[in-house]
Protein backbone atom coordinates (compact mmCIF):
# COMPACT_ATOMS: atom_id res chain seq x y z
CA UNK A 1 0.00 0.00 0.00
CA UNK A 2 1.46 3.37 -1.01
CA UNK A 3 1.73 6.42 1.15
CA UNK A 4 -1.25 8.78 1.25
CA UNK A 5 -0.81 11.85 -0.93
CA UNK A 6 -3.50 13.82 0.91
CA UNK A 7 -4.74 14.00 4.51
CA UNK A 8 -8.02 12.51 5.80
CA UNK A 9 -11.16 14.52 5.17
CA UNK A 10 -11.94 17.42 7.45
CA UNK A 11 -15.01 15.68 8.82
CA UNK A 12 -12.93 12.71 9.98
CA UNK A 13 -10.30 15.02 11.46
CA UNK A 14 -13.09 16.75 13.38
CA UNK A 15 -14.41 13.41 14.64
CA UNK A 16 -10.93 12.39 15.79
CA UNK A 17 -10.51 15.72 17.59
CA UNK A 18 -13.90 15.31 19.27
CA UNK A 19 -12.94 11.83 20.46
CA UNK A 20 -9.85 13.28 22.07
CA UNK A 21 -11.85 16.11 23.68
CA UNK A 22 -15.18 14.59 24.76
CA UNK A 23 -15.88 17.40 27.20
CA UNK A 24 -16.21 19.84 24.31
CA UNK A 25 -19.33 17.98 23.23
CA UNK A 26 -20.47 16.55 26.57
CA UNK A 27 -20.73 19.89 28.42
CA UNK A 28 -23.02 21.59 25.86
CA UNK A 29 -25.15 18.43 25.66
CA UNK A 30 -25.52 18.33 29.45
CA UNK A 31 -26.50 22.01 29.53
CA UNK A 32 -28.96 21.49 26.68
CA UNK A 33 -30.46 18.47 28.47
CA UNK A 34 -30.90 20.51 31.67
CA UNK A 35 -32.58 23.31 29.72
CA UNK A 36 -35.02 20.85 28.14
CA UNK A 37 -35.76 19.12 31.47
CA UNK A 38 -35.79 22.08 33.87
CA UNK A 39 -36.22 25.08 31.66
CA UNK A 40 -33.76 27.89 30.87
CA UNK A 41 -34.51 29.90 34.00
CA UNK A 42 -33.91 27.09 36.48
CA UNK A 43 -30.83 25.94 34.54
CA UNK A 44 -29.41 29.47 34.52
CA UNK A 45 -30.02 29.85 38.24
CA UNK A 46 -28.41 26.45 38.92
CA UNK A 47 -25.32 27.30 36.88
CA UNK A 48 -25.10 30.69 38.59
CA UNK A 49 -25.29 29.06 42.01
CA UNK A 50 -22.57 26.59 40.98
CA UNK A 51 -20.23 29.37 39.83
CA UNK A 52 -20.96 31.42 42.94
CA UNK A 53 -20.33 28.39 45.18
CA UNK A 54 -16.94 27.83 43.58
CA UNK A 55 -16.07 31.50 44.03
CA UNK A 56 -17.17 31.47 47.68
CA UNK A 57 -15.16 28.27 48.28
CA UNK A 58 -12.05 29.86 46.84
CA UNK A 59 -12.44 32.96 48.99
CA UNK A 60 -13.58 31.33 52.24
CA UNK A 61 -11.26 28.31 52.40
CA UNK A 62 -8.25 28.87 50.10
CA UNK A 63 -6.32 25.87 51.48
CA UNK A 64 -8.82 23.21 50.38
CA UNK A 65 -9.69 25.09 47.17
CA UNK A 66 -6.04 25.34 46.13
CA UNK A 67 -5.55 21.66 46.91
CA UNK A 68 -8.59 20.13 45.24
CA UNK A 69 -10.13 22.54 42.73
CA UNK A 70 -7.58 25.14 41.62
CA UNK A 71 -5.14 22.79 39.80
CA UNK A 72 -7.90 21.29 37.63
CA UNK A 73 -9.56 24.64 36.91
CA UNK A 74 -6.24 26.32 36.17
CA UNK A 75 -5.10 23.47 33.89
CA UNK A 76 -8.38 23.55 31.93
CA UNK A 77 -8.26 27.31 31.51
CA UNK A 78 -4.66 27.33 30.33
CA UNK A 79 -5.22 24.35 28.04
CA UNK A 80 -7.87 26.31 26.13
CA UNK A 81 -6.31 29.78 26.26
CA UNK A 82 -2.58 29.07 25.84
CA UNK A 83 -1.86 25.55 24.62
CA UNK A 84 -4.28 24.99 21.73
CA UNK A 85 -5.39 26.21 18.34
CA UNK A 86 -3.66 28.71 16.13
CA UNK A 87 -1.78 30.27 19.01
CA UNK A 88 -0.09 26.96 19.85
CA UNK A 89 0.59 26.15 16.19
CA UNK A 90 2.14 29.58 15.66
CA UNK A 91 4.30 29.16 18.77
CA UNK A 92 5.57 25.78 17.58
CA UNK A 93 6.26 27.17 14.10
CA UNK A 94 8.13 30.21 15.41
CA UNK A 95 10.32 27.96 17.60
CA UNK A 96 11.16 25.57 14.77
CA UNK A 97 9.25 22.64 16.28
CA UNK A 98 6.90 21.93 13.36
CA UNK A 99 7.55 19.91 10.21
CA UNK A 100 6.09 19.89 6.75
CA UNK A 101 4.55 16.63 5.60
CA UNK A 102 6.72 15.60 2.67
CA UNK A 103 3.82 14.13 0.67
CA UNK A 104 0.88 16.39 1.41
CA UNK A 105 2.73 19.58 2.31
CA UNK A 106 0.59 19.99 5.46
CA UNK A 107 2.17 21.53 8.55
CA UNK A 108 2.62 18.92 11.29
CA UNK A 109 2.26 20.48 14.73
CA UNK A 110 3.23 18.75 18.02
CA UNK A 111 0.00 17.85 19.81
CA UNK A 112 -0.77 18.74 23.43
CA UNK A 113 -1.98 15.64 25.27
CA UNK A 114 -2.42 16.94 28.78
CA UNK A 115 -1.81 19.99 30.95
CA UNK A 116 -1.09 19.92 34.68
CA UNK A 117 -0.94 23.15 36.64
CA UNK A 118 0.47 22.37 40.06
CA UNK A 119 0.63 26.02 41.06
CA UNK A 120 -0.19 29.48 39.78
CA UNK A 121 3.36 29.84 38.46
CA UNK A 122 4.19 26.37 37.06
CA UNK A 123 2.58 24.30 34.28
CA UNK A 124 3.59 20.90 32.94
CA UNK A 125 2.50 20.33 29.35
CA UNK A 126 2.71 16.81 27.90
CA UNK A 127 3.27 17.00 24.13
CA UNK A 128 3.44 14.31 21.45
CA UNK A 129 6.37 15.16 19.20
CA UNK A 130 6.23 15.12 15.44
CA UNK A 131 7.80 11.97 13.98
CA UNK A 132 11.51 12.51 13.39
CA UNK A 133 12.02 14.62 16.53
CA UNK A 134 13.58 13.55 19.83
CA UNK A 135 14.05 15.02 23.30
CA UNK A 136 17.49 16.42 22.46
CA UNK A 137 15.97 18.27 19.50
CA UNK A 138 13.43 19.92 21.82
CA UNK A 139 15.95 20.64 24.54
CA UNK A 140 18.12 22.53 22.05
CA UNK A 141 15.18 24.87 21.50
CA UNK A 142 14.12 25.25 25.13
CA UNK A 143 15.69 28.69 25.50
CA UNK A 144 13.91 29.87 22.33
CA UNK A 145 10.65 28.44 23.64
CA UNK A 146 10.78 30.19 27.01
CA UNK A 147 11.61 33.52 25.36
CA UNK A 148 8.66 33.06 22.99
CA UNK A 149 6.35 32.23 25.92
CA UNK A 150 7.77 35.17 27.91
CA UNK A 151 8.28 32.69 30.76
CA UNK A 152 10.86 32.69 33.51
CA UNK A 153 12.21 29.25 32.61
CA UNK A 154 11.39 26.15 30.59
CA UNK A 155 12.66 22.61 31.25
CA UNK A 156 12.03 19.69 28.89
CA UNK A 157 12.27 15.99 29.79
CA UNK A 158 11.23 12.70 28.18
CA UNK A 159 7.91 11.41 29.53
CA UNK A 160 7.50 8.27 27.43
CA UNK A 161 8.32 7.24 23.84
CA UNK A 162 7.29 10.04 21.53
CA UNK A 163 6.09 12.33 24.34
CA UNK A 164 7.94 15.13 26.13
CA UNK A 165 7.02 16.93 29.35
CA UNK A 166 7.53 20.69 29.13
CA UNK A 167 7.73 22.34 32.56
CA UNK A 168 6.97 26.05 32.17
CA UNK A 169 7.83 28.30 35.09
CA UNK A 170 6.00 31.54 34.44
CA UNK A 171 7.48 33.56 37.28
CA UNK A 172 9.33 33.35 40.57
CA UNK A 173 6.89 33.88 43.44
CA UNK A 174 9.47 35.03 45.99
CA UNK A 175 10.80 38.54 45.51
CA UNK A 176 11.95 39.27 49.05
CA UNK A 177 13.70 37.61 51.95
CA UNK A 178 11.29 36.20 54.53
CA UNK A 179 12.13 37.26 58.11
CA UNK A 180 12.61 34.64 60.81
CA UNK A 181 9.35 33.34 62.30
CA UNK A 182 8.46 34.62 65.73
CA UNK A 183 9.31 32.38 68.66
CA UNK A 184 6.04 31.22 70.26
CA UNK A 185 5.45 32.48 73.79
CA UNK A 186 4.43 29.18 75.40
CA UNK A 187 4.38 25.48 74.62
CA UNK A 188 0.61 25.72 74.08
CA UNK A 189 1.36 27.95 71.08
CA UNK A 190 3.51 25.25 69.47
CA UNK A 191 2.02 22.69 67.08
CA UNK A 192 4.65 19.97 66.74
CA UNK A 193 2.74 18.60 63.76
CA UNK A 194 3.02 21.89 61.82
CA UNK A 195 6.03 24.03 62.71
CA UNK A 196 6.30 27.20 60.63
CA UNK A 197 9.44 27.35 58.49
CA UNK A 198 8.63 30.08 55.94
CA UNK A 199 6.05 30.83 53.24
CA UNK A 200 4.76 28.78 50.32
CA UNK A 201 4.25 30.14 46.81
CA UNK A 202 0.63 31.07 47.60
CA UNK A 203 1.76 33.41 50.35
CA UNK A 204 0.62 31.08 53.14
CA UNK A 205 2.79 29.86 56.04
CA UNK A 206 4.85 26.85 55.05
CA UNK A 207 4.85 24.30 57.87
CA UNK A 208 6.42 20.89 58.43
CA UNK A 209 6.00 18.36 61.26
CA UNK A 210 8.63 17.57 63.86
CA UNK A 211 6.86 14.43 65.07
CA UNK A 212 5.47 11.50 63.11
CA UNK A 213 8.43 10.88 60.82
CA UNK A 214 11.97 11.72 59.80
CA UNK A 215 13.06 14.66 57.63
CA UNK A 216 15.62 14.80 54.84
CA UNK A 217 16.74 18.23 53.59
CA UNK A 218 18.96 18.30 50.51
CA UNK A 219 20.54 21.32 48.92
CA UNK A 220 23.80 22.59 47.50
CA UNK A 221 26.14 24.75 49.53
CA UNK A 222 24.48 28.12 50.14
CA UNK A 223 20.99 26.87 49.24
CA UNK A 224 19.53 27.67 52.66
CA UNK A 225 19.67 24.44 54.67
CA UNK A 226 20.55 26.46 57.77
CA UNK A 227 17.35 28.47 57.32
CA UNK A 228 15.27 25.28 57.53
CA UNK A 229 17.24 24.03 60.55
CA UNK A 230 17.10 27.21 62.63
CA UNK A 231 13.53 28.10 61.65
CA UNK A 232 12.48 24.69 62.94
CA UNK A 233 14.30 25.22 66.24
CA UNK A 234 12.76 28.69 66.64
CA UNK A 235 9.33 27.18 66.01
CA UNK A 236 9.76 24.67 68.84
CA UNK A 237 11.75 27.01 71.12
CA UNK A 238 9.40 26.95 74.15
CA UNK A 239 9.28 23.16 73.98
CA UNK A 240 13.09 23.04 74.11
CA UNK A 241 13.05 25.36 77.11
CA UNK A 242 10.43 23.30 78.96
CA UNK A 243 11.95 19.90 78.17
CA UNK A 244 9.21 18.75 75.79
CA UNK A 245 11.70 18.62 72.90
CA UNK A 246 15.33 17.61 73.38
CA UNK A 247 17.78 18.29 70.56
CA UNK A 248 20.68 15.94 69.89
CA UNK A 249 23.01 17.72 67.46
CA UNK A 250 25.68 16.12 65.27
CA UNK A 251 27.77 18.58 63.24
CA UNK A 252 30.84 16.96 61.70
CA UNK A 253 31.91 20.22 60.07
CA UNK A 254 33.55 21.10 63.36
CA UNK A 255 30.50 22.83 64.79
CA UNK A 256 31.19 26.04 62.88
CA UNK A 257 27.54 26.61 61.93
CA UNK A 258 25.87 25.21 65.05
CA UNK A 259 28.15 26.23 67.93
CA UNK A 260 26.18 29.42 68.53
CA UNK A 261 23.15 27.33 69.49
CA UNK A 262 25.03 24.83 71.67
CA UNK A 263 23.22 25.80 74.91
CA UNK A 264 19.99 24.55 73.32
CA UNK A 265 21.30 21.03 72.70
CA UNK A 266 20.76 18.08 75.00
CA UNK A 267 23.74 16.31 73.42
CA UNK A 268 26.31 17.74 71.02
CA UNK A 269 28.99 16.05 68.89
CA UNK A 270 31.40 17.50 66.33
CA UNK A 271 33.73 14.54 65.72
CA UNK A 272 33.08 11.05 64.39
CA UNK A 273 33.90 9.18 67.66
CA UNK A 274 31.64 11.51 69.64
CA UNK A 275 28.92 11.21 66.98
CA UNK A 276 28.93 7.41 67.23
CA UNK A 277 28.73 7.68 71.01
CA UNK A 278 25.80 10.08 70.67
CA UNK A 279 24.01 7.80 68.20
CA UNK A 280 24.48 4.82 70.49
CA UNK A 281 23.06 6.75 73.42
CA UNK A 282 20.17 7.94 71.26
CA UNK A 283 19.39 4.37 70.20
CA UNK A 284 19.64 3.10 73.80
CA UNK A 285 17.29 5.85 75.00
CA UNK A 286 14.79 4.72 72.37
CA UNK A 287 15.02 1.12 73.57
CA UNK A 288 14.52 2.20 77.18
CA UNK A 289 11.40 4.14 76.25
CA UNK A 290 10.08 1.19 74.27
CA UNK A 291 10.53 -1.00 77.35
CA UNK A 292 8.56 1.52 79.42
CA UNK A 293 5.82 1.63 76.78
CA UNK A 294 5.48 -2.15 76.86
CA UNK A 295 5.35 -2.17 80.65
CA UNK A 296 2.62 0.49 80.66
CA UNK A 297 0.80 -0.94 77.61
CA UNK A 298 1.18 2.32 75.67
CA UNK A 299 1.15 2.17 71.87
CA UNK A 300 2.24 5.78 71.20
CA UNK A 301 3.74 8.45 73.44
CA UNK A 302 2.41 11.96 73.90
CA UNK A 303 5.01 14.78 73.98
CA UNK A 304 5.61 15.86 77.59
CA UNK A 305 8.54 16.47 79.93
CA UNK A 306 8.23 12.81 80.99
CA UNK A 307 8.29 11.57 77.38
CA UNK A 308 9.92 14.34 75.35
CA UNK A 309 10.38 14.39 71.60
CA UNK A 310 13.96 13.28 71.06
CA UNK A 311 15.11 15.14 67.94
CA UNK A 312 18.39 14.06 66.35
CA UNK A 313 19.70 16.73 63.93
CA UNK A 314 22.60 15.79 61.66
CA UNK A 315 24.20 18.68 59.79
CA UNK A 316 26.00 17.53 56.62
CA UNK A 317 24.92 13.94 56.95
CA UNK A 318 27.32 12.65 54.29
CA UNK A 319 30.24 13.10 56.69
CA UNK A 320 28.56 10.53 58.92
CA UNK A 321 27.14 8.11 56.35
CA UNK A 322 29.68 8.07 53.50
CA UNK A 323 32.92 10.01 53.94
CA UNK A 324 34.23 8.61 57.24
CA UNK A 325 36.22 5.44 57.68
CA UNK A 326 34.38 2.29 56.63
CA UNK A 327 33.85 0.86 60.10
CA UNK A 328 32.49 4.12 61.53
CA UNK A 329 30.17 4.62 58.57
CA UNK A 330 28.82 1.08 58.86
CA UNK A 331 28.14 1.54 62.59
CA UNK A 332 26.46 4.91 62.02
CA UNK A 333 24.18 3.51 59.30
CA UNK A 334 23.24 0.55 61.48
CA UNK A 335 22.29 2.79 64.40
CA UNK A 336 20.37 5.22 62.18
CA UNK A 337 18.44 2.43 60.48
CA UNK A 338 17.41 0.98 63.83
CA UNK A 339 16.17 4.33 65.12
CA UNK A 340 14.41 5.34 61.90
CA UNK A 341 12.52 2.06 61.57
CA UNK A 342 11.39 1.94 65.20
CA UNK A 343 11.37 5.46 66.63
CA UNK A 344 8.11 6.95 65.42
CA UNK A 345 5.72 5.79 68.16
CA UNK A 346 8.27 6.53 70.89
CA UNK A 347 8.82 10.12 69.60
CA UNK A 348 12.37 9.65 68.31
CA UNK A 349 12.91 11.64 65.09
CA UNK A 350 15.88 12.19 62.78
CA UNK A 351 16.46 15.31 60.67
CA UNK A 352 19.29 14.96 58.15
CA UNK A 353 20.82 17.78 56.10
CA UNK A 354 23.12 17.08 53.16
CA UNK A 355 24.34 18.26 49.75
CA UNK A 356 24.60 14.97 47.82
CA UNK A 357 21.41 12.87 48.06
CA UNK A 358 22.48 9.77 46.12
CA UNK A 359 22.05 6.28 47.53
CA UNK A 360 25.82 5.87 47.81
CA UNK A 361 25.95 8.85 50.17
CA UNK A 362 22.76 8.21 52.17
CA UNK A 363 22.07 4.49 52.31
CA UNK A 364 19.04 5.10 54.57
CA UNK A 365 17.48 7.66 52.22
CA UNK A 366 14.25 5.70 51.76
CA UNK A 367 13.58 5.74 55.53
CA UNK A 368 12.98 9.51 55.51
CA UNK A 369 9.26 10.22 55.38
CA UNK A 370 9.53 14.00 54.92
CA UNK A 371 11.57 15.24 51.96
CA UNK A 372 12.63 18.83 51.30
CA UNK A 373 14.65 19.72 48.21
CA UNK A 374 16.33 23.12 48.09
CA UNK A 375 18.50 24.26 45.19
CA UNK A 376 20.59 21.32 43.95
CA UNK A 377 23.31 21.01 41.32
CA UNK A 378 21.90 18.19 39.16
CA UNK A 379 18.49 17.40 37.71
CA UNK A 380 18.78 13.79 38.91
CA UNK A 381 19.02 14.98 42.53
CA UNK A 382 15.44 16.26 42.44
CA UNK A 383 13.91 12.82 41.88
CA UNK A 384 16.38 11.27 44.34
CA UNK A 385 14.98 13.50 47.08
CA UNK A 386 11.32 14.02 46.17
CA UNK A 387 10.59 10.80 44.32
CA UNK A 388 10.39 9.66 40.72
CA UNK A 389 8.79 12.15 38.36
CA UNK A 390 8.92 15.09 40.78
CA UNK A 391 10.99 17.25 38.45
CA UNK A 392 8.76 16.43 35.50
CA UNK A 393 5.77 17.60 37.55
CA UNK A 394 7.41 21.00 38.12
CA UNK A 395 9.96 20.69 40.94
CA UNK A 396 12.76 22.52 39.13
CA UNK A 397 15.07 22.60 42.14
CA UNK A 398 18.16 22.24 39.94
CA UNK A 399 17.17 25.45 38.13
CA UNK A 400 17.14 27.57 41.30
CA UNK A 401 20.02 30.07 41.08
CA UNK A 402 22.74 29.49 43.64
CA UNK A 403 23.12 33.10 44.77
CA UNK A 404 22.10 34.53 48.14
CA UNK A 405 18.97 36.18 46.66
CA UNK A 406 17.46 32.72 46.07
CA UNK A 407 18.67 30.96 49.22
CA UNK A 408 15.94 29.08 51.06
CA UNK A 409 13.76 28.42 47.98
CA UNK A 410 12.85 24.77 47.52
CA UNK A 411 10.15 22.20 46.87
CA UNK A 412 8.16 19.61 48.80
CA UNK A 413 5.52 17.17 47.58
CA UNK A 414 1.96 17.71 48.76
CA UNK A 415 0.80 14.42 50.27
CA UNK A 416 -2.74 14.78 49.01
CA UNK A 417 -2.28 15.86 45.38
CA UNK A 418 1.30 14.55 44.94
CA UNK A 419 2.11 17.84 43.21
CA UNK A 420 5.23 19.89 43.98
CA UNK A 421 4.76 22.90 46.24
CA UNK A 422 7.37 25.62 46.17
CA UNK A 423 8.31 27.44 49.36
CA UNK A 424 10.91 29.76 50.80
CA UNK A 425 12.41 29.17 54.22
CA UNK A 426 12.77 32.19 56.46
CA UNK A 427 16.21 33.74 56.84
CA UNK A 428 17.51 33.30 60.39
CA UNK A 429 20.33 35.70 61.23
CA UNK A 430 22.94 35.41 63.99
CA UNK A 431 20.87 37.85 66.05
CA UNK A 432 17.81 35.60 65.63
CA UNK A 433 19.83 32.61 66.87
CA UNK A 434 21.07 34.66 69.82
CA UNK A 435 17.48 35.56 70.68
CA UNK A 436 16.50 31.89 70.52
CA UNK A 437 19.35 30.91 72.86
CA UNK A 438 18.52 33.68 75.33
CA UNK A 439 14.82 32.88 75.47
CA UNK A 440 14.75 29.10 75.11
CA UNK A 441 17.87 27.60 76.67
CA UNK A 442 16.81 24.79 79.03
CA UNK A 443 17.61 25.25 82.72
CA UNK A 444 20.98 23.90 83.90
CA UNK A 445 20.95 20.12 83.84
CA UNK A 446 23.71 17.66 84.54
CA UNK A 447 22.53 15.59 81.56
CA UNK A 448 23.35 18.32 79.03
CA UNK A 449 26.73 17.19 77.78
CA UNK A 450 29.07 18.15 74.97
CA UNK A 451 30.37 14.69 74.13
CA UNK A 452 33.52 16.01 72.45
CA UNK A 453 34.44 17.99 75.58
CA UNK A 454 33.74 14.95 77.76
CA UNK A 455 35.93 12.73 75.59
CA UNK A 456 38.74 15.29 75.66
CA UNK A 457 38.61 15.48 79.45
CA UNK A 458 38.76 11.68 79.64
Point out poorly predicted stretches: none
Strand order of the main beta sheet, please? 8-7-16-15-14-9-13-12-10-11-17
| Inertia-based shape | elongated
Structural class: alpha/beta
Query: Assembly state here?
Result: single chain
pLDDT averaged over residues: 88
**Fraction of residues in helix:** 25-40%
Distance between the termini: 89 Å
Main β sheet profile: 11 strands, mixed
Number of helices: 15
Radius of gyration: 27 Å
Strand content: 15-25%
Explain this structure:
Residues 203-383 form the FtsK domain. ATP binds at residues 219-226. Pfam families: FtsK_SpoIIIE. The protein is of the alpha/beta class and 458 residues long. The chain is built from 15 helices and 17 strands. It has helices at residues 10-20, 22-38, 40-60, 62-81, 85-94, 135-140, 142-149, 225-235, 237-241, 272-296, 318-321, 326-342, 379-386, 430-440, 451-457, and strands spanning 99-100, 107-108, 111-119, 122-128, 153-160, 163-169, 195-200, 205-208, 215-218, 245-251, 265-269, 309-315, 348-354, 370-374, 409-413, 420-425, 449-450. Strands 8-7-16-15-14-9-13-12-10-11-17 form an eleven-stranded mixed beta sheet. The protein has a four-stranded antiparallel beta sheet with strand order 3-4-6-5. A two-stranded antiparallel ribbon has the order 1-2. Helix 3 crosses helix 4. The longest helix has 25 residues, at 272-296. It is elongated and about 85 Å long. It starts with 9 loop residues before the first helix and ends with a helix.
Amino acid sequence: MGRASRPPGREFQALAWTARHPGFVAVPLVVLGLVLMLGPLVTGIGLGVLVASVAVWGRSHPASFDRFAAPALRATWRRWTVYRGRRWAQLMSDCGLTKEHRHTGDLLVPRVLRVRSSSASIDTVYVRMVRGQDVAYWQERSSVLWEALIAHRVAITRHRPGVVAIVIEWELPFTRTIPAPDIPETTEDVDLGAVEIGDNERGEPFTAPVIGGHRLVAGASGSGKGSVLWSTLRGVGPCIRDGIVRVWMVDLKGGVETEQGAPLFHRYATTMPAALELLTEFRDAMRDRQDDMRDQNVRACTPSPATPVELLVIDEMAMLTAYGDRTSVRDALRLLAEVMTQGRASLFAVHGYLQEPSKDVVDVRELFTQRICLGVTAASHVDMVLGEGARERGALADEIPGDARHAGIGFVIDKGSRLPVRFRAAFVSDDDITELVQRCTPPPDADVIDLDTERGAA
